[in-house]
UniProtKB/TrEMBL annotation:
<feature type="domain" description="ABC transmembrane type-1">
    <location>
        <begin position="23"/>
        <end position="221"/>
    </location>
</feature>
<dbReference type="InterPro" id="IPR051322">
    <property type="entry name" value="AA_ABC_Transporter_Permease"/>
</dbReference>
<keyword id="KW-0472">Membrane</keyword>
<protein>
    <recommendedName>
        <fullName>Histidine/lysine/arginine/ornithine transport system permease protein HisM</fullName>
    </recommendedName>
</protein>
<feature type="transmembrane region" description="Helical">
    <location>
        <begin position="198"/>
        <end position="221"/>
    </location>
</feature>
<keyword id="KW-1003">Cell membrane</keyword>
<dbReference type="GO" id="GO:0022857">
    <property type="term" value="F:transmembrane transporter activity"/>
</dbReference>
<dbReference type="Pfam" id="PF00528">
    <property type="entry name" value="BPD_transp_1"/>
</dbReference>
<keyword id="KW-0813">Transport</keyword>
<dbReference type="GO" id="GO:0043190">
    <property type="term" value="C:ATP-binding cassette (ABC) transporter complex"/>
</dbReference>
<keyword id="KW-1133">Transmembrane helix</keyword>
<keyword id="KW-0812">Transmembrane</keyword>
<dbReference type="InterPro" id="IPR010065">
    <property type="entry name" value="AA_ABC_transptr_permease_3TM"/>
</dbReference>
<keyword id="KW-0029">Amino-acid transport</keyword>
<feature type="transmembrane region" description="Helical">
    <location>
        <begin position="167"/>
        <end position="186"/>
    </location>
</feature>
<dbReference type="GO" id="GO:0006865">
    <property type="term" value="P:amino acid transport"/>
</dbReference>
<comment type="similarity">
    <text>Belongs to the binding-protein-dependent transport system permease family. HisMQ subfamily.</text>
</comment>
Length: 255
């Protein structure tokens, strides 16, 4: 174990000597996929709840396609399938984009994350209290202001626990990035195992790194949820004590 760490601690954390690798690549995949997926899901969630059936069904077809097929298969299509098309190979820009495994991985992860976040946000938008919306309109807010100050903040508060779970799922999904030759944590562990035949140690280190990242994400979301919902007054639960019950009974007897 010590010899393995002495040789591969840098590749596991940030660099293999030539390019970024390990935890640095895993974090880059996670952050880019979550941020880009969330930004794309905002307009799509509005379209998902649109009154026009054509728009609503189009977004539903998109989310059903990417939620109903394995992410691993989507990555293979982006990395191998699309690049095999003559149209893509003949276009210099598309050729250079889909020839890079990192670009294909980020594209597949971002679209898949967008599909899941779109459904979460669309469901939260439906559950926003109609009374708050009517009060905002009566106050004189425009439609844009209502969405900015009332609807989206309330929907985000409702879906925040689901977002934390989705981020951890995306983190675990990054383990298939080695399929596109992306040097994430698991790719480094596989290389270390191939070079040293220390299977348990190599994959054990990778498991510990993923566990640390999962704990940091979970703890960060808990802190953010506490800060973001600090103004919400929680109902007080009354717990009677023996002294309190005695005082109450004595007042009843006096009456």
């Amino acid at each position: 174990m010590i010899e393995l760490l002495q040789t591969y601690w840098k590749p596991f954390l940030y660099s293999d000597g030539y390019n970024y690798s390990g935890m640095a690549i895993t974090l880059w995949l996670l952050i880019f996929s979550v941020v880009s997926g969330f930004l794309m899901s905002i307009p799509l969630s509005l379209a998902r709840n649109a009154k026009m059936p054509a728009i609503r069904w189009s977004v539903q077809a998109f989310t059903t396609l990417f939620r109903g097929t394995p992410l691993y298969l989507q990555l293979l299509i982006c990395y191998s399938g699309i690049y095999s098309l003559r149209l893509v190979q003949d276009q210099p820009l598309l050729n250079s984009f889909f020839r890079d495994g990192m670009n294909c991985t980020l594209l597949a992860f971002s679209i898949n994350t967008c599909a899941y976040m779109c459904e979460m946000l669309a469901g939260a938008l439906k559950n926003v209290d109609a009374g708050e919306v009517e009060a905002a309109k009566a106050f004189g807010m425009s439609k844009f202001q209502v969405y900015r100050h009332i609807i989206f903040p309330a929907a985000f508060k409702q879906s925040l626990p689901q977002y934390s779970n989705e981020v951890i799922i995306v983190l675990h999904s990054t383990t298939i990035a080695f399929t596109a030759t992306v040097a994430d944590i698991l790719k480094v562990a596989r290389d270390a195992n191939s070079a040293t035949y220390m299977t348990f140690q190599s994959f054990g280190i990778a498991a510990i790194l993923y566990l640390i990242l999962s704990f940091v994400i979970f703890y960060g979301f808990k802190k953010f949820e506490t800060y973001y919902t600090a103004h919400i007054v929680k109902p007080h639960t009354y717990r009677p004590t023996m002294l309190g019950l005695f005082e109450k009974m004595r007042k009843v007897v006096r009456k």
